[in-house]
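Hi U.,

Before I forget, here's the chain from the pilot set. I'm dumping it here mostly so it's searchable later in email.
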Amino acid sequence: MGFSRRINELVMPPKRSNTLTEAELRLMKILWRRGESAVTDLVTALPEGEPLAYNSVLTTIRILEQKGYVQHRQEGRAFVYKPCIAEQEASRTEVRNMLSRFFGNSREQLVLSLLGDEGVATEELERLKDAIRSAAPEKGNKR
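Structure:
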């Protein structure tokens, strides 16, 4: 390994992932549901049995801000955070990431994987068929 490459590895921080960790997703779900919240609000809104310390929530929310998921404004001495990305947009980003990483960008492989999972209800299959029919381009009108 070359000297300059080794120096760059030591100096350059690792590329930050834009996917959400479990802790980040828990906080985002609270923000999507509640809207603007201070760190103390987030701590108290966490479900019982899934507590996070104030400092852990503060660190996680700052990471979410660095990733561009939230922004803050100051209210008195506290920062109040709000989501910058809608839940549906974040969901699509996560699915695209999974599609790329695990299925080589093949929607077909993703769907086949899901359909191969036991426990797909008949009603779900019918809704999927309807969704596929409505998404399919009409003859002579390719998307």
